[in-house]
Amino acid sequence: MYPADLKYTNDHEWVRIEGGEAAVGITDFAQKQLGDVVFVELPEIGRALKQGEVFGTIESVKAVSELFSPLSGEVIAVNTELGNHPDYVNSKAHETWMIRVKITNAGEAASLLDANAYEALTK
Amino acid sequence: MVEFGGWDMPVEYTGIIDEHMAVRTAAGLFDVSHMGQLEIAGKNALATVSELTCNDPSKLAIGQIQYSALTTPEGGFVDDVLTYRIADDHFMLVVNAGNIVKDYEWLQSHMRQRGGDAVLVNSSSRYALIAIQGPEAEAILQTLTAIDLAKIKYYWFDNGEVAGQRVMVSRTGYTGEDGFEIFVPPAAAEKVWNALLDAGAAKGLKPAGLGARDTLRLEAAMRLCGSDMDEHTTVMEAGLGWIVGWKKESFLGSDVLHAQKAGSLTRKLTAFEMVDKAIARHGHPVVADGKQIGVVTSGTQTPYLKKAIGFAMLPVALTAPGTIFNIDVRGRIVAAKVVPEPFYKRAKKA
Fold it and tell me: Is B305 on the interface with A (CB under 8 A)?
């Protein structure tokens, strides 16, 4: 059920790496745990993130969670659509990116999980 | 499922927003069997309840209910309760799950001190409690009972049968919608629950959990004891002067409450909505000039109004509707605005 073309973190983010850039979202497992998402707080464009650093928060009706950057990089885009449609995180988690970063340390990708390893983590 | 007051309770069935909207537009079914029932009976029952709760139970007819509180000598909340008048000399207090033992011991020790002819019984295990709430609640419940529900007024109750089971039905709830709470023997609870779900399916009835119960009560500006107020919050500070029997002789905490009514009140629980885009939550500090001046006691993004709202304990000077104040939401200072209560009020039936 987890797309094979994505990489995953232990904190339940997914990453789509395309060339020197990466799109980041949260997994279907994470959105189910959170329940109805009502607010996603995202960083400023241009912010430099380290791998594992908090880049935002996601709030469901019942809980607040932090979002962790899977890779080091500079934020080059944020998904402004989530301002009006935070529910997209629930309805299509693996297609709903939150930030895009310009990767500054490509070697870090080796530390990410593949779909099988991530699925095992959620069992 | 989560642990709540010693009970395993469902937070959500189909999703908090879905359940919340079902209650606002059709109906929702809640298992609130965790709520406690403490009964006081005897020749001095009225005097006892009158002295230990802040509202005036002498105003209750048999079959009538009032919102009230068990108060401390300082006018704070031991618990908030619904007082049911079962008979002239027999009252039932419906209390919060986590407070059943505390409330029982509180009542017992005060009743022992004052003496008189009244006994206290914890009958919590004799009742399961099922709430059906929403604009379709009456129509759905009516298909399963011979009780004429239209004759039960808001905050009144009656006895009869639902789905063939002996029950007590009260027109009460914690959602801001019309609806009923059904007191049923535990052995018959599953039968009544399933009968209601079947009877209501075509009308949009859905089971609803603790999550929706919390967002619904907050939209209706109903307080959650233990979150919005506690022993250190007086009934006046909680903005509940309307549940105080001001004409009563003295009751526990009456000196403090009368003084606060006369002008000594310094802080008050106040409804707000967010101005900046953020959701304030329980415990977030209200700040001014770098200092904490209050605290958020409840806060959420509400599914029906689609706004971030909440309650905050604020200095009285900041409680006029329209007043802007700041909240520290995880390190970010965001603006909120005082609004009148309730956030949501259901339309009156035509």
Answer: no
